[in-house]
Specification:
flat, mainly alpha, single chain
Length: 123
């Protein structure tokens, strides 16, 4: 069984850990805030297990491989490493988004006064 099978299940074979946990949580009658928070975490784990969201290691490999200074020689230069760490810092500080890693998305909307307002939502 793959991680996807274990976490998300296989039809008519194994229900999957996430659906089992979701069924258990329904029986607890949690408040809406707690229920939504747990649902977001379970959705994140489900997407990681299925491969719909990249792992951090996979994303970092792709970053290095696509860097203009990378020579396909397995050497990560100081410049590549610096750019990688700066990008990671910006992601961590929410200065930039990396949709391949997160279910959190940012949308610019206009409020009633026509001003741009940043809204963050999670899948």
């Amino acid at each position: 069984m793959s991680l996807n099978d274990i976490f998300n299940g296989v039809e008519n074979e194994f229900p999957g850990l996430i659906p089992l946990v979701e069924d258990y949580l329904k029986d607890l009658h949690l408040d809406v805030h707690t229920s939504c928070t747990l649902h977001r975490y379970l959705r994140f784990i489900s997407l990681k297990a299925s491969g719909e969201l990249q792992t951090t290691a996979s994303w970092m490999r792709d970053f290095v491989r696509s860097h203009p200074d990378y020579k396909q020689d397995s050497v990560v230069s100081e410049e590549i490493n610096y750019d990688l760490m700066k990008t990671c810092q910006k992601i961590g500080n929410e200065e930039i988004q990396e949709p391949k890693l997160s279910t959190q998305h940012e949308v610019m909307r206009k409020n009633s006064k026509g001003e741009g307002v940043k809204q963050i939502f999670c899948l």
